Amino acid sequence: MNHAIELSVLSPMASVESMIDAFEAVQQNGFATLTVPPFWVKKLHRDWPESAQAILSTVIGYPLGYQRTETKQTETECALNDGAREIQVVMNTSAWFSNSNGWPKVEFAKLAKLIHQREAIFTVIIETDFFDESNLLRALKTAADAGADYVQNTTGFFQKPFDLAKAVRFKQLTPARVGCKIWAEGATNEDFTKLLEHGAERLCLPFRS
């Protein structure tokens, strides 16, 4: 199961010591990914073993996603230059639920091109609690059509109780050509097993030092 676990250290109170502890936990346990704020990517990349299988990831547009596309592009370029191998972009729900609801696809396409040119992974994070099922289905298709490698069901910023049924439904709605990540804070080991059985590729957890 460890190969499917992603650790995130995104608390505003997280110190550099927390980043290093999380880095060591990922290496020692064979976890898939470590996600950190853009500010810390360069420092962690300097100590990232070339032989490591784990991916160093960061978030863009965290936590609400409503930055300008040009801002997200600049942040993405900086993160890639600093050594990030995965970019997780928070969807602009403010644009989606407005007369500009076609813009997220344009933004995703621009970012996908930039990220894939550097042979990095592109993940789109969608705050599913803001979406009814028909809108969620369209949003997932939009992300997939624009070139996302993965979609994720929440940033975890709002700290909602884990809901296995909602998580499974997110996976069921995800297009088959896109990987599925589930924020699994609060999930039990049994929940982890069920999520993997339903085809979730990654289980995302906050790091607790």
From TrEMBL:
This is Deoxyribose-phosphate aldolase. GO terms for biological process: carbohydrate catabolic process; deoxyribonucleotide catabolic process. Keywords: Cytoplasm, Schiff base. SUPFAM superfamilies: Aldolase. The keyword Cytoplasm applies. GO terms for molecular function: deoxyribose-phosphate aldolase activity. The keyword Cell membrane does not apply. PANTHER family: DEOXYRIBOSE-PHOSPHATE ALDOLASE (PTHR10889:SF1). GO terms for cellular component: cytoplasm. InterPro entries: Aldolase_TIM (IPR013785), DeoC (IPR011343), DeoC/FbaB/LacD_aldolase (IPR002915). The lineage of its organism: Bacteria, Pseudomonadati, Bacteroidota, Cytophagia, Cytophagales.
